[in-house]
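Dissemination and training. As part of the outreach component of the grant, students in the summer workshop were shown how a complex can be specified as a set of sequence lines and then modelled as a single object. The example used during the hands-on session is reproduced here so that future cohorts can follow it. Participants entered these lines:
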Amino acid sequence: MTHVVVDPVTRIEGHLRIEAEVDDGAVQNAWSSSTMFRGVELILKGRDPRDAWAFTQRICGVCTTVHAITSIRAVENAIGAEPPPNARLLRNLIMASQMVQDHVVHFYHLHALDWVDIVSALSADPASTASLAQSISDWPLSSATYFGAVKERLQHFVEGGQLGPFGNAYWGHSAYRLPPEANLMAVAHYLEALDWQREFIKIHAILGGKNPHLQSFLVGGMATPVDPDQQASINMTSISAMRKLIGEAKKFVEKVYIPDLLAVASFYKDWAGYGAGVGNYLVYGEYPETDEADPPLFLPSGIIRQRDLGNIEPLDQAKINEYVTHSWFEYGDGDDQGLHPFEGETRPTYTGPQPPYDRLDTDGKYSWLKSPRYDDQPMEVGPLSRMLVAYASGNPRVQELVNYALGQLGVGPEALFSTLGRVAARGLETLVLAEKLDGWLDELADNMGRGDLRIHDNSKWEPSSWPKDCTGAGFHEAPRGALGHWVHIVDGEIANYQCVVPSTWNAGPRDAMGQRGPYEEALIANPVADPEQPIEILRTVHSFDPCMACGVHVLDPAGRELVKVRVQ
Amino acid sequence: MDQTPSWLVEELERRGVSRRDFLGFCGVMSTALALPTSAGAKIADAIERKEKPTLVWLEFQDCAGNTESFLRAGRPTVADIVLDTLSVDYHETIMAAAGHRAEEALAGVVADKPGGYIAVVEGSIPTGANGAYCTIGGRAAIDIAREVCGNALATIAIGTCAAFGGLPAAAPNPTGALSVADAVPGVKNLINLPACPANADNLVAVIVYYLTFNRLPPLDAYKRPLFAYGKTIHDNCERRAHYDAGQYVENWGDDGHRTGYCLYKMGCKGPVSYQNCPNVGWNEGTNWPIGCGHGCIGCAEPDFWDQMTPFYSHLAGVPGFGLHSKVDRVGIWATAGVAAAFAAHGLVQLGKRSFRERTYVKAAAPERPAAEEKGDQA
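and obtained this result:
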């Protein structure tokens, strides 16, 4: 039995450590640990709830909109503010464009190098690469001259001897299976996607002043004025600019991302047999289509248990609880119970090895993440969960795309429950949302044309208009999955704040019953050809798109003791 | 300037960028840096002669927002920087290697190029729990920071967390988070590039400045380059005329808001915030926060999470008067080394509500802004 440690897991947001036992060329057991902690929720206590979105937004700079959105929803829910229709549309545009941009960056810049061997691209024939590219897409940048120039740039870079971020990697590993031409095509698109993401996200600068960390969120609405007759508002100039960005995004996803995804997947079909994970899926749902109290959601909510697509259960948030049995926290009444976020308590008690260390105590506590459970079961959240629930709930476009992808790869629906399925679901979701953006933009323009310029519910802006003591919850589907914030407001200040975050669901450690979290379970039976170069572990972990800073949890009064010790 | 073309010129030519285009770029950079026209040629000369300098990028208590901002760099692009201009030998979010192979890459730079590489630090550095609030490869962040920054040619603390402690250090600073200046005593050639996140244009400009003149740009008291932080947002704000005319947004979405009136009453901290947002904009000049209708939150100032909140309470009194003394006093904590920083964090411990009590509105006198009175008189 070989004990493999991957720390840091790179090409993710945040700090993640994987320990695994490998025998007979496969993972026998695995532990997922988050090794960074900040205590954002404690910092929020006593502050103005209208400021909370800016604080929680800084939980993550990659999914830079998600905690802001969830926070304003939680506070609005608590104080009874009702954002007008234009705010819903502006938010939908911001959320969906975040999803589209983030998924593309994940595929090309965080995940691709697990499947694409850059060094192999150096032996590609540009003419054959052009034939390959033209056979799967009519994207215009596909000539032999174009790929020849990319190859030459790469050649020059490698010959320079300074490999920078591509140094010391696993190039030439037997697990890389793409022909050189596919590798060269992927390298070209890695570079194109770098340019593309920079351009497309200008839609966030239009709607939020800047990206990362947009600055137009408000409890009760949005700070972006809309008025077709003003220079300082969203007007037809900005609508046209967004229309162009959306059109180009859709084209890139249709003609580059999806064809690349299917081409790469066709060489790695065996990965439909690995990484299945816990087989339970949780979705809060997202994209309100109307302004009613309980609006229909474009991507529906639901629970799937044990891969049973025939039975989508309605979600009941009262069934959510969190364990700290294997987390560096303790509960007042013992660490073997689960607590609902409204009752959540969090006292950090670091019991791990003192740094520098080689091994964690995986029998005891071993992560800064808690273990969220639904009805005491571990749940996977994210694009795969959303696409499965939408597919099983009858969303026609999702069904069409999933069936198309399965058909192209010649695999059955069972292939979805896997590392490959997770990667594919993310791509299909990107296309589904890229196609939705125009409609929301049309609606916004329509409203402006009819003279509806409202962006904010002013009636609940002043804290004097709020109940003295109120609680609220906000939910959102972030790129990495189901996100919830719970807030308790007393006398206009935050009394308590709790976040239960996608990467906590997916990356959390074992619970009191000894059930593994989704990463840990997905790694079981994962192949590892060479424990010194565990690229296969990265494939499955990256398929979840880890975002660790998001997952890390609250700190309560005990935490202040630590600071006092330091100050003395 | 007539030396044998270096690798860079070859590289650019092969990619269809003429020498003329390249000199044009250098001219743009010199304009961005507010340098005399002749500096354009010096920049070109400097870039051509240099080997690709090594850069390592460390992430500690961060959100990767500065990394994402770096990915938005468009002049030049991140691909140009990573592939052609610098050798980025360590950066967790983008590097291909993982685990001990990644750590070997970092150790190799420190061992082989002592005093010869640029370190960029993103995120604050925790001291609580004996360093266990942030470990990488089993090592405490503070040990990594001291080793890597301690041996660097220069260190760039990017973002407000690395520059001043930022969000993790906001009251009550649960993890004992410190800035680079405080966590690495005696760190040489430190440049702070605060903001949440820092603007990619400013990072690129610092790198080119350093390569060109082989020295740090002039800095303010918080070690921020003057070319990017030398003036307040208010000084250069496109809505300044409305402020001077006493025309304010009163409610979100009102006529004044749609017309682009001043956001002072909605809590804008532009008058006490130093940064070049109105000049360079964000996302290649597409927009900036005030441009989209929301006030400045002062994100490049020390302790802004405590000093600039509540974000929607307007600055009190005559803007700029009496407030600067407050800002300066706070700032001393951030720059006077570890002992002062500890004292500051001690102050933060005084009470749960201290961050509120120290805010401008609570601290300073009249609720009614002088400028509004001026507007009324007009």
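Chain A touches chain B through 114 residues (CB under 8 Å). Students were then asked to discuss how this feature might be tested experimentally.
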